[in-house]
Amino acid sequence: MSKLTTTVPIKRPKSITVILTAEASERLTALAKKGKRSRQLEAMLRIHDSLKRVPEITGDYWEITTL
C-alpha cells in the first residue's frame, strides 16, 4: 500500500520597500521608540493591522497619505 501525502506550500515572508512622507517617517520612528521596537517591526505590525481592518481602499487614496 502506498501512503497518500499532500504537500502544503511554504509561505515565506516577503520584503518590500515603502516610500513615506517625512511626517509619516517621523511618526513611525516615534511610535517605534515608544513601543521599544525597530522601525521595520513597527511598520510590519502596522501594515498587518491595516490589512486586517481595511478590506479595500477606493477613491482618492492620496488624502490618506496626509497625517
UniProtKB/TrEMBL annotation:
Signal sequence region: none
Keywords annotated in UniProt: Conjugation, Cytoplasm, DNA-binding
GO function terms (MF aspect): DNA binding
Location in or out of the cell: Cytoplasm
Presence of keyword Oxidoreductase: no
Pfam families, sorted: TraY
Gene Ontology cellular component terms for the protein in this record: cytoplasm
Family: Belongs to the TraY family.
Protein name as it appears in the record: Relaxosome protein TraY
